[in-house]
Amino acid sequence: MLQLDQADALGALFARAGYARVEPTVLQPVDVFLDLSGEDIRRHMFVTQDAAGHELCLRPDYTIPVCRDYLASPRAGEQAAFSYYGPVFRLRAGTSGEFPQAGVESFGRGDLEAADAEIIALALEALASLGIAKSVVRVGDVGLLTALLDALALPPAVRRRVQRAVVQGDIETILNGNDTGRNGHDHAGLLAAIEGQDQQAARAFVEDVMAIAGIVSVGGRSAAEIAERFLARAANRHSHLDGEVRDILARYLAVTGDPDTAVAEIRKLCRDAGLDLDEALDQCEARTGFMAARGVDVGSLVFAADFARNLDYYTGFIFEAHDGQRPETKPIVGGGRYDGLLAHLGAAEPIPAVGFAIWLDRLNGLNEADAGEGQ
Predict the structure, then answer these.
(1) Residue 357 belongs to what domain range?
(2) Whole-prediction pTM value?
(3) CB 3.0 to 4.6 Å from 134: which of 227, 324, 353, 365, for a disulfide?
């Protein structure tokens, strides 16, 4: 457990940086987390119901609760910066399921690259205040991957499979040509049953199957919405990556090194392949400049093109930091940019957002079997 003086030091650090302390309610609606992370997260949450039968959960992280409170406040849409420190709740074998977490969230800043640099610099300063002077830091850019996939103009179903493979660390499946779905058999029976049917009949069939199974919704999606997804997958499940595209993806995803070296390699790839990713690459270089200006040793950062986290959540810069004394263990800090989340939660338009979370229980190497991170 974090010592009181360490908690005070974190609070003082965040306050000096302009991040006001907030404490969202512990009980949160379940569907928000399911919609962003899928049904799999349910088995890691403490779930209950209110008197009206609505499903609630003990907050599994702070980011979404902080976002919801911000959107419900008079400051919604304005520039704002918040910090937090308190318990989050995740079911893990052999533990109480309650863990301390600290972090910050920054909303509404238009200077995206400068805000990104501030966040990673503050995260590393926070680690230093906790006694971790040397960190192993990995960085990536979901926006750059998105720009590449846009430039390659992949069919939607193939694009989703590529994204899923990158997030799951299973890119060899895609690059080896086995890109017909998860493990090659993802709901293959159902897809085969609706393939070739007209849309109305296929939709009715999927809805009937779900009704028989007693499934009303999954991850906040209705039976009709899920049926539409199955229809799209059935229509595209035989689309494949051609050899040239596969080679480009393989070369891109192999890029690793310090940020400057990585950007130079990707620029060369773009010239060779006739792709225009200049805007996204310029943003990467600008961010690196701002990080250096904030005293971050950018030469020690490891940019990995195949580093990706939840792509339904993150939209740009991402990073994670490990204890330099135990680099093989799970990251103590994780964060990045998530510009689409607030609109997903009800904002009238996208609001720039970036932040990080510190898993304080990992400071002593505990709970390495964590199922995942919010930030």
Answers:
(1) 1-130+332-339+351-375
(2) 0.81
(3) 324
